């Protein structure tokens, strides 16, 4: 929409005095009334249960009956739990891969797309499609393609069971997630690149900069805020990684693709250790909060500015 | 075309094959019988059969699950648009004290892991008899999608000049009248984008559905597809046909309205 600046309406006379104060109070009441459905819903579904989690994390609770207060026992247990350590390591591996692979493919796709005119929209649409397809469908597609009896490997003459082998299960699921995600990043980076001031490129050309120099010194700094945001979200998503793992391997075989969120889900709904699950959930949130705080701190220091 | 651009196009085509090749293979397999899938797993079918589609439709009970998903989608879209529309109006057009904190809270909220509130929410929903209940699921979608929808709509509504609302207010219109008569007609492209995204999310969503819906007749297509796939984990023809039923509506809708999808998903925030 093109917002043409119309002359401002003169402010109503008298910013102070009882009338104005009453009007302001009225505006506040009306405004909060408009916000009320959103906030009440959030209180019911998100905020209320989140606060309850804090309490339950200090209890021995099956998830259904009464909860007994046990202090810090759940946290002590989590700290020494080998399964938790292993899951955290898997989260770290997941993060390293999920940050580099889709980002590299996304930057490559976006850069090439920004250089061409014909079929740009078509390629953009094709890259984006895996993102709009449901995780359950994408997972089924790749179970088929990774199958040792009817998949790509079979065609190439190997009977490697990518999802069934503890050595490859985590990497295979991560590959599928990277595959469904990189095109989305390509589209985001492309729109960020198209927002870079064209005169900067002209100036670089006048200075005799090569294509690669232009990319390094104009394009990348130009899309830096977008990249910083994506890195931040990747950290958070890596911690939350759940759906593809849950669907494709259930964390197995033998815990080889277990991450904190799948471990937590099993503790709550299969092992009936809801108190312990709450402690794990709260710990994940605290890690997220620390990451967000660091991000805010770095932003204040001007890291995001080009 | 220079040679450099030819190189660009080669890489772009390879990337495109990487992105949609697997989905095309599924489309091919849906038309093959299992003997052909075994001997010729990824290539185009040599003999077309519609048997997989017919069997998948009845075995997967797609008539029921698609109806459930449509109810869930409609309920999520309508509710989210109303809830987020009201909130976005307040956050953009009304001068509400404390609205900055609300915007910050909405941003922060979308970063929280669902694991934080999952267990107590399940407990609460069991007490309220909202598990195994489509409406119970829709409420959760309202709560989880509305923050994103609010931020997206707010950025749309901020583009509407304040003068319009000021003028209507001087004419004696109430806030609700302004929202309905002035802002809503101008903001409908924003609402369409939100509706598309919320419909996509609720059609694809499986985590809340698998945790909160256990009765097979109430399952949406996503969790029903998951159960179907597990039961037929070696019958790739049947699974492929079911996958086509599930992905065709969203892919077609996306191709028809891709600009709206992409602008919404890339501007508001990302999930």
What do these coordinates show?
- Chain B: It is found in: Cell membrane.
- Chain B: Belongs to the binding-protein-dependent transport system permease family.
- Chain B: The chain crosses the membrane at residues 9-31, 69-91, 103-128, 134-153, 182-203, 236-257.
- Chain B: It comes from Asanoa ferruginea.
- The complex is a heterodimer of chains A (306) and B (271).
- Chain A is built from 13 helices and 2 strands.
- Chain A is mainly alpha-helical.
- The longest helix of chain A has 40 residues, at 17-56.
- Chain A starts with 16 loop residues before the first helix and ends in a 6-residue tail after the last helix.
- In chain B, α4 packs parallel to α7.
- Chain B has helices at residues 3-30, 34-39, 51-59, 62-92, 99-109, 118-127, 134-157, 162-170, 175-204, 207-212, 221-231, 236-256, 258-268.
- In chain B, 76% of the residues lie in helices and 0% in strands.
- The mean pLDDT of chain B is 89.
- Chain B starts with a helix and ends with a helix.
- The interface between A and B is large, with 95 and 96 residues.
């Amino acid at each position: 929409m093109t917002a043409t600046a119309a002359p401002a309406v003169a402010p109503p006379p008298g910013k102070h005095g009882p009338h104005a104060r009453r009007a302001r109070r009225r505006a506040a009441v009306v405004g909060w009334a408009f916000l009320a459905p959103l906030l009440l819903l959030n209180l019911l579904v998100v905020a209320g249960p989140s606060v309850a989690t804090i309490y339950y994390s200090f209890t021995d609770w099956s998830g259904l009956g009464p909860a007994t207060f046990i202090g810090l026992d759940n946290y002590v247990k989590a700290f020494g739990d080998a399964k938790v350590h292993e899951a955290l390591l898997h989260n770290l591996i997941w993060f390293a891969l999920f940050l580099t692979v889709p980002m590299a493919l996304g930057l490559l796709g976006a850069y090439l797309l920004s250089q061409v005119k014909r079929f740009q929209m078509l390629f953009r649409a094709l890259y984006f499609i895996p993102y709009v397809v449901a995780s359950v469908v994408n997972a089924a597609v790749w179970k088929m393609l990774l199958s040792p009896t009817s998949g790509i490997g079979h065609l190439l003459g190997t009977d490697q069971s990518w999802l069934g082998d503890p050595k490859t299960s985590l990497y295979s699921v991560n590959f599928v997630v990277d595959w469904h995600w990189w095109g989305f990043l390509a589209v985001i980076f492309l729109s960020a690149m198209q927002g870079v001031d064209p005169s900067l490129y002209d100036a670089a050309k006048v200075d005799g900069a090569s294509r690669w120099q232009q990319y390094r010194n104009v394009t990348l700094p130009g899309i830096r805020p977008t990249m910083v945001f994506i890195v931040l979200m990747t950290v958070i998503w890596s911690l939350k990684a759940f759906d593809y793992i849950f669907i494709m391997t259930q964390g197995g075989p033998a815990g080889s693709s277990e991450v904190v969120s799948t471990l937590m889900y099993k503790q709550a709904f299969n092992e009936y250790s809801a108190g312990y699950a709450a402690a794990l959930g709260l710990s994940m949130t605290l890690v997220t909060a620390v990451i967000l705080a660091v991000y805010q701190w770095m932003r204040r220091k001007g890291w995001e500015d080009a | 075309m220079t040679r450099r651009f030819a190189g660009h196009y080669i890489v772009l085509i390879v990337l495109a094959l990487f992105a949609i090749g697997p989905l095309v293979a599924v489309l091919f397999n849906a038309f093959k019988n299992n003997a052909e899938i075994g001997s010729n797993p990824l290539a185009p079918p040599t003999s077309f059969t519609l048997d997989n589609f017919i069997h998948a439709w009845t075995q997967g009970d797609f008539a029921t699950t698609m109806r459930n998903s449509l109810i869930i989608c409609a309920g999520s879209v309508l509710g989210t648009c109303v809830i987020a529309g009201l909130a976005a109006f307040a956050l953009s057009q009304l001068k509400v004290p404390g609205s900055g904190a609300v915007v910050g809270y909405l941003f922060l909220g979308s970063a929280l892991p669902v694991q934080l509130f999952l267990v107590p929410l399940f407990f609460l929903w069991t007490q309220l008899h909202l598990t195994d209940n489509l409406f119970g699921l829709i409420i959760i979608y309202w709560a989880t999608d509305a923050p994103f929808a609010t931020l997206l709509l707010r950025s749309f509504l901020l583009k509407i000049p304040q003068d319009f609302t000021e003028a209507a207010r001087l004419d004696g219109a109430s806030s609700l009248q302004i929202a309905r008569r002035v802002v809503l007609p101008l903001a409908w492209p924003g609402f369409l984008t939100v509706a598309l995204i919320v419909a996509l999310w609720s059609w694809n969503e499986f985590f809340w559905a698998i945790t909160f819906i256990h009765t097979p007749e109430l399952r949406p297509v996503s969790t029903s597809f998951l159960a179907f796939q597990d039961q037929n984990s070696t019958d790739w023809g049947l699974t492929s046909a079911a996958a086509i039923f599930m992905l065709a509506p969203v892919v077609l809708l996306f191709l028809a309205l891709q600009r709206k999808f992409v602008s919404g998903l890339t501007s508001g925030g990302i999930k």
